[in-house]
Write a structure and sequence with these properties.
Elements (H helix, E strand, L loop, with lengths): L5 E4 L9 H15 L5 H4 L7 H11 L6 H18 L9 H10 L3 E6 L3 H10 L9 E4 L11 H10 L6 E5 L2 H9 L3 E5 L14 E3 L24
Parallel strand pairs: 1-2, 1-4, 2-3, 4-5, 5-6
Helix pairs in contact: 1-4
């Protein structure tokens, strides 16, 4: 039986319910650029870094703005909405779950495709997050982000444990692909927010953090009915 020593969290849609905000921001971006982006295309953006998504957007559509200008334009739209958002909250049960992890000596890492500026704003809005994570990994530090596994490979490295002793909690198709490409057991958090994501490659699907207490994968099949860390 493999003992779990570390839990790696995505941020958007796992720690905070920011997917609706992201959808509003991107909808406004598409509107101001005069683009008709179908949901099937937008769904592929979820979980990836804005830089990757904006590159893809310029490949798919004719956009007059140069790439650096497009990044600044999108950031302004997003943070204007972020500052006004009244529905941005921590995910239900997150504090109880991470308190449980910390009380049991489990290493917790935040690994998000988001820019450091966004991470800082989220932590400023929710100061309690500063004590929730042992380390934070930003997608800004990698050439390629989710579904590329680099960010999760680095996150596992920072835990100090083998990947078999870690789990990753994700809410997006791209994040799940990255977790599995990194060779880590992946729990998909299905929130019902934002656009529909394909979670078929996840090892387990949950809709509430309480479904992860207790959790201890057994062998390669990851049965979840043993005491946490047992």
């Amino acid at each position: 039986m493999t003992k779990i020593h570390a839990v790696i969290f995505d941020m958007d849609g796992v720690v905070i319910n920011s997917e609706p905000l992201g959808l509003r921001a991107n909808t406004e971006l598409f509107k101001q650029l005069g683009l008709d982006v179908p949901e099937s295309v937008y769904a592929t953006f979820v979980g990836s870094a804005p830089t990757d998504n904006l590159r893809k957007l310029k490949q798919l559509y004719t956009i007059p703005l140069e790439y650096p200008e497009l990044i600044k334009f999108r950031s302004k739209i997003y943070f204007d909405l972020f500052d006004k958002a009244e529905d941005l909250q921590l995910m239900p049960g997150f504090i109880d779950f991470i308190t449980y992890l910390k009380d049991n000596g489990i290493v917790t890492i935040l690994a998000t495709s988001s820019f450091r500026e966004k991470i800082k704003r989220v932590f400023d809005k929710f100061p309690m997050l500063a004590s929730c994570f042992d380390d934070v990994v930003s997608g800004e530090d990698f050439e390629f982000t989710k579904p590329d596994p680099a960010i999760f490979i680095e996150a596992v490295k920072r835990t100090g444990f083998d990947k078999s002793e870690c789990i990753i909690i994700e809410d997006s198709t791209n994040g799940i692909k990255a977790a599995k490409a990194a060779g880590v057991y992946c729990v998909a958090y299905k929130t019902g927010h934002g656009v529909t994501q394909d979670m078929t490659n996840a090892d387990k699907i949950i809709t509430d953090f309480r479904q992860l207490s207790p959790l201890t994968p057994e062998g390669g099949t990851a049965k979840w009915n043993s005491p946490f860390g047992g």
